[in-house]
Design a protein that fits this description.
By secondary structure, the protein is of the alpha+beta class. Helix content is about 55%, strand content about 10%. The protein has helices at about 1-10, 15-50, 55-60, 60-70, 70-80, 90-120, 130-155, 160-170, 170-175, 180-190, 235-240, 245-250, 275-280, 295-310, 345-360, 375-380, and strands at about 200-205, 210-215, 220-225, 230-235, 245, 255-265, 320-325, 330-340. The strands form 2 sheets. A 5-stranded antiparallel sheet has the order 4-3-2-1-5. Strands 6-8-7 form a 3-stranded antiparallel sheet, covered by helices on one side. α2 packs antiparallel against α4 (about 60-70) and α2 (about 15-50) packs antiparallel against α5.
């Protein structure tokens, strides 16, 4: 060992520079060959396995950044052997390659975190969780550690000493990263309590939000409204203020419909014996005790409820009723309350409209009329 060291000392400066360049070139050649040969081989092997996580690792930049560590690490190991005497230019060169290693290592860690996010997005347990903000915070911490290490290399200070100095300026750092810290805390709360997932339909009138959540990041929640506009709000806004999430409705067995038909009170009357006999023979009248003085509105309510209950697009296992509300100067409101099987907006509204139209068309059969305020045409005598 001493003989080898003496031989290195006896090498001329020109020879040592040539050997150093050869080592660097050889290390970069190894890096190039690994990226060109080993990465495609690893991808083919990962594609043949039954797992999916190895595909994300090999398809991302994780392996590429790992191989990029070969040249600087090799040179830093060889530098003290080739140039044992400490000179200013060797110190600067050592610092440069150390910073290079820190940058590549941080890139490697960030690429690995991105792969973890892609893997978790495919997981049945985590794919519906707003985890992107958590992974972004991990990347921020990695970058912060890299910056501290880089400063430590430049000023030749220990990592722990720098952290102790940063502790004194914690208040300033909290002010600078206030939104990031609040976003991280809010993201953890949203995820832990399952308050929000990508794809949820949420409403927040205060901020003009009414649409589906597209993305939940560390600093923003992106929502595409139904008019195709995009609204972004900080995550802590959803924690500090209240918002409506329609996910439970989508996961339930039906979507609610509440419609009120206003009956003209002047058309509510008792049925004649002939009308009562005719109505009592109908399928929907089973269970109704017909007697003298039965009101036409009672028959109409039974017929409307039967029409709704037998509709194939209505979930009759959920609450279904036809009830009267408080009379108003605009008539007697008759509320239709039921749930459609379809939860998507277009189909839901179509089913609700069809049922309301059918029930409105039934009213003349019972001698009833919907209330409608008179217009100018009503007073003009136009027919």
């Amino acid at each position: 060992m001493e003989q080898n060291t003496l031989e290195i000392f006896e090498m001329t400066i020109q020879t040592r520079i040539i050997v150093s360049c050869a080592i660097v070139l050889l290390a970069y050649l190894v890096d190039f060959l690994c990226c060109r040969l080993l990465i495609p081989l690893a991808r083919r092997l990962a594609a043949k396995t039954a797992y999916t996580w190895d595909n994300y690792i090999t398809d991302s930049n994780v392996l590429r950044h790992a191989f990029h560590l070969i040249p600087p690490v090799t040179f830093l190991v060889a530098l003290p052997l080739l140039f044992p005497e400490t000179e200013q230019w060797t110190i600067l060169l050592s610092k440069g390659f150390s910073i290079y290693i820190i940058v590549v290592a941080c890139s490697l860690a960030c690429a690995f975190v991105s792969s973890l996010y892609a893997i978790s997005s495919e997981s049945e347990v985590l794919k519906d969780k707003p985890m992107k903000g958590v992974y972004q915070m991990v990347k921020v911490l990695i970058v912060c550690v890299g910056i501290v290490l880089t400063i430590g290399v430049l000023i030749e200070k220990d990592f722990t000493t720098l952290l102790a100095g940063l502790g004194a300026s914690a208040a300033v750092l909290m002010l600078i990263f206030k939104d990031t810290i609040l976003g991280l805390v809010a993201g953890v709360q949203l995820s832990a309590h399952d308050m929000l997932r990508p794809g949820d339909w949420i409403m927040m009138d205060k901020h003009g939000i009414n649409g589906e959540v597209e993305e939940v990041t560390l600093n923003t929640v992106k929502v595409r409204n139904w008019d195709n506009t995009i609204t972004t709000v900080p995550p802590y806004t959803l924690v500090s203020d209240s918002f409506k999430n329609w996910r439970a409705m989508r996961e339930s067995a039906g979507r609610r419909v509440t419609r009120a038909i206003r009956i003209d009170i002047n058309t509510i009357r008792t049925c004649t014996p002939e009308e009562s006999a005719t109505f009592s023979r109908q399928e929907w009248a089973k269970g109704i005790q017909t007697e003298t003085g039965t009101v036409n509105l009672k028959f109409f309510r039974a017929a409307a409820e039967y029409r709704i209950r037998t509709n194939p697009d209505v979930n009759a296992d959920l609450m279904l009723l036809v009830r009267q509300l408080e009379p108003t100067p605009e008539g007697l409101p008759l509320q239709l309350y039921f749930f459609t099987k379809a939860k998507d907006w277009v189909t839901h509204e179509r089913v609700a409209a069809d049922i309301v139209e059918e029930i409105l068309a039934m009213m003349p059969e019972f001698g009833l009329r919907a209330y409608q305020k008179p217009s100018g045409m009503d007073f003009s005598g136009y027919n």
